[in-house]
Amino acid sequence: MFRIIRKKKLNASVTLMEFDAPFIAAKVKAGQFVIFRVDEQGERVPLTVADSDPERGTITLIFQVVGQSTMKLNALEEGDSITDLAGPLGMPTKLPEQAKKICIIGGGVGCAIAYPQAKSCFLQGMETDVIAGFRSKEIVILEEEFRKNCHELIICTDDGSYGKKGFVTDALKERIEQGNQYDAVIAIGPVPMMKFVCEVTKPYAIPTIVSLNPIMVDGTGMCGCCRVTVGGKIRYACVEGPDFDGHQVDFNELMHRNGTFHQREAECRLLAQADQL
Amino acid sequence: MPNLSERKIPVPEQNPDERKKNFSEVTLGYTPEMAQKEAERCLNCKTMPCMSGCPVNVKIPEFIQKIKEQDYEKAYAIIHQSSSLPAVCGRVCPQEKQCESQCVRGKKGDSVSIGRLERFVADWHMENCHFPVKKPEFNGHRVAIVGGGPAGLTCAGDLAKRGYAVTIFEAFHVAGGVLMYGIPEFRLPKEIVQKEIDHLKLLGVEIMTNMVIGKVFSIDELMEQGFEAVFVGSGAGLPRFMGIEGESLVGVCSANEYLTRINLMKSYQEGYDTPVLSSESVAVCGGGNVAMDAARSAVRMGAKKVYIIYRRSENEMPARKEEVRHAQEEGVQFLTLQNPVKILGDENDRVRALVCQKMELGEPDISGRRKPVPIPDSCYELPVDTVIMAIGTSPNPLLRKTTEGLETNQKGCLIVDESMMTTKQGVYAGGDAVTGAATVIMAMGAGKSAAQSIDEYIQQKRTKQEE
Ligand SMILES: Cc1cc2nc3c(=O)[nH]c(=O)nc-3n(C[C@H](O)[C@H](O)[C@H](O)COP(=O)(O)OP(=O)(O)OC[C@H]3O[C@@H](n4cnc5c(N)ncnc54)[C@H](O)[C@@H]3O)c2cc1C
Ligand code: FES
User: Which chain A residues are within 8 Å of B249, Cβ to Cβ?
Assistant: First the structure.
């Protein structure tokens, strides 16, 4: 059993939870993920680790309440426990050697994963810019945390209610055109966002790392459910990823594959809403 | 009185129309009367040919003799000397290729139904014997087991009985390996596997789940933590795909994924959260037990049409005969001598058809089986919405990649010597991780021999230290 020692609502649909998980905390590096199962009936769901504290033996997960499992998780409180937490899984993020200047882009809840990347780059002494995009002001998360862990923070909102109006891609393009020479870009967020970021960086040949979120079961390479096509080859995101060279990823395929259970997910949400009424 | 009937006593089974709709066990097992009658068919041959067909040399005529004498507990004890998992092996061993293939009675008529007798004895034991298990006295040595499949469980049990403090590190949230995630409930009730695991816990074996070794701890770190030896029984779980066009379409999955969702995550049961593809028509590519399990699971999940696509003929199918028969009775259609060449999708990238090419048998290949050769211009489209790949698995490279000094052969199987020690001192291995995908009984046997070697290794080390 893994105990929740801190719970904090970051916005209407995004929650932060800190878990007691000393073995994972001692090992996890930026870019790696865990698989959780809330209870005996629960499914196995991957979440990238947002933060860890090896001394206290804890890891932090930040998740958006989107389906059955995240709803169940969100219903738990400090002091409650979940049955399973396996990790750290996947490979840590690997930046190009001697990278000095980095731009990290987070979209929505993807900022939760962009944050440990920013922190790790910043602590290693790289010049770290962060572009964080949200739909509107109410859902901005982790602003303080980012500010402490980067040189330049640009917040964009789609509706212009906070920060810059527009998409992260616009802000990125502007930064590049202003003459910022990035050795690498890390993009984490919804699949279309990552796809468009890659389209922006490609003409400039800036190495772009994306963190993929395919459906998973075991997370150890034994089901093939998480397979993605990268550079024309099939790769298992759970063992070889979740980070890949964004310029090589077949994003359209990933979008389709992620829709495998959409119908059933929508049904679950409706049922859960009916329960709450 | 000897039973001279050429036919074995049939075993009661759930009727096909009924069982297609449920996940309960298909084969119901012998009653004591049936077991008696079947046991009487054994001629108690002096040469015991059956025993030589058993990968772990169970003393078959001896245990059958005890059934004749109605001393079922003794019969169990005899099997248990050589096999740690009789209730499991009695159900899933390919007996027709092993013990039963050597049985003298099989020369004219049916061989003695050794598997069913083994299962009877094991079930009788589980039902009727409830001895308190005594935790053996700790001998001061600790051993780590990586992977809780049949190999790991057996090795753990044998070491625990000798007084070792044993910890199993299992990647999944439950131990059991393929017995839990792969082989379906209707063939091997999970309750039986759980009982074996609970028994180990009573012997003092500690089971740590959610521990992916190579990630959370490396093998070297386990040794640093004070484990004097490590047994690796991590199986061969990495699924193979065919490398044909369309394998990334929505609706294509490995048998491992399909079966894990159903068996381990229980998506067939009300109240469990894990989704599984809901299919109308399913093509399962492959001809082994895994393919049969996937096809029969698909039938139970409500698919209207389920096909097995196999490139050789039914004779060459590696699946157990009983599985093939059961699948056929349940309405699975066998499209043999056909090879999948391409999967077609609709505008949303969802599977709509499997293109198959017809084959004919040519000259025998190195395996001795006649090689299938494609018939030109024989491709056709089989309309399906789901394609399940059951064409084999190989060992997961995770441990090799994270452990210095652990070597594998070209197929990714761990290399071991006669004592089952890997190329790394103090690290032993067995089961599918060493042989590639094989059988439960072989994995169990490997776990047993490794336990013996590990015991010798640690005792020798101790004697050296004392000198
Ligand atoms: C669907 C299916 C049907 C089958 N049917 C039959 C049958 O009818 N008869 C028969 O005899 N055989 C059958 N087999 C084969 C048989 O199940 C295997 O040969 C046997 O289970 C191998 O045992 P094992 O202990 O070596 O490995 P496994 O049973 O594969 O167990 C390995 C365990 O190690 C764990 N593990 C892997 N890597 C790590 C790691 N890094 N850290 C921690 N844990 C790890 C895995 O999660 C797993 O629990 C079938 C196999 C499948 C898939
Ligand atoms: S999640 Fe199963 S192989 Fe990656």
Answer: 256
Would you mind telling me the total number of residues written for chain A in this entry?
277
Pocket perturbation via mutation, ligand 2, pick of A213, A220, A235, A257 by most ligand atoms within 8 A of CB: A220
Which chain B residue's Cα is nearest to A264? Answer: B275
Q: Is residue A72 less than 8 Å (CB to CB) from chain B?
A: yes
Residue whose structure tokens are 């699975």: B332
Query: Which tens digits make up the pLDDT trace of B285-332?
Result: 999 999 999 999 999 999 999 999 999 999 889 999 899 999 999 999
B55 CB under 6 A from ligand 1?
no
**pLDDT band, residue B131 (cuts 50/70/90):** confident
B387-426 confidence digits (pLDDT tens):
999 999 999 999 999 999 999 999 999 999 999 999 999 9
Q: Does domain B16-128 have CATH number 1.10.1060.10?
A: yes
Q: Say how far apart CA B467 and CA B465 lie, in whole Å.
A: 5
Closest CA to B179 of B431, B436, B446, B450: B431
Residue whose tokens read 């009658």? B37
Q: How far apart are CA B191 and CA B197, in angstroms?
A: 10
Q: What is the DSSP string of B228-279?
A: SEEEE-----EE-----BTTTSBTEEEHHHHHIIIIIS-TTSTT--------
Domains and CATH numbers, chain A: 2-89 (2.40.30.10), 92-208 (3.40.50.80), 212-265 (no CATH)
Among chain A residues, CA nearest to B173: A84
Q: Going by CATH, does the domain composed of B241-389 fall within 3.50.50.60? A: yes
Taking the CA of residue A178 as centre, how many other CA atoms within 13 Å lie in the half-sphere pointing to its CB?
7
Q: Is the pLDDT of residue A276 over 60?
A: no
Cα–Cα distance, B13 to B10 (Å, whole number): 9
Q: What is the mean pLDDT of residues B106-118?
A: 95
Query: From the CB of A216, is ligand 2 less than 6 Å away?
Result: yes
Q: What is the mean pLDDT of chain B?
A: 94
Beta strands in B120-227 (DSSP E): 142-146, 165-169, 206-208
Q: Look up the ipTM and state it.
A: 0.91
Beta-carbon separation of A221 and B237 below 8 A: yes
B431 lines ligand 1 (CB under 6 A): yes
Domain B142-235+398-466 grouped into CATH 3.30.390.10: no
| CA-based torsion, B400, B405, B406, B410: positive or negative | positive
pLDDT band at B175 (very low <50, low <70, confident <90, very high): very high
Asked if the domains at B142-235+398-466 and B241-389 fall in one CATH topology, the answer is yes
CA of A95 to the centre of ligand 1 (A): 36
Per-domain residue ranges for chain B?
16-128, 142-235+398-466, 241-389
Q: Select from B173, B217, B237 the Cβ nearest to the Cβ of A83.
A: B173
Task: Say if residue B43's pLDDT is above 60.
Answer: yes
Q: Can you give the pLDDT at residue B132?
A: 77
What are the distances in angstroms from CA B32 to CA A57, B36, B66, B116, B119?
Answer: 56, 6, 12, 12, 12
> Which among B212, B265, B343 is the top mutation candidate for probing chain A, defined by the most A β-carbons within 10 Å of its own β-carbon?
B212
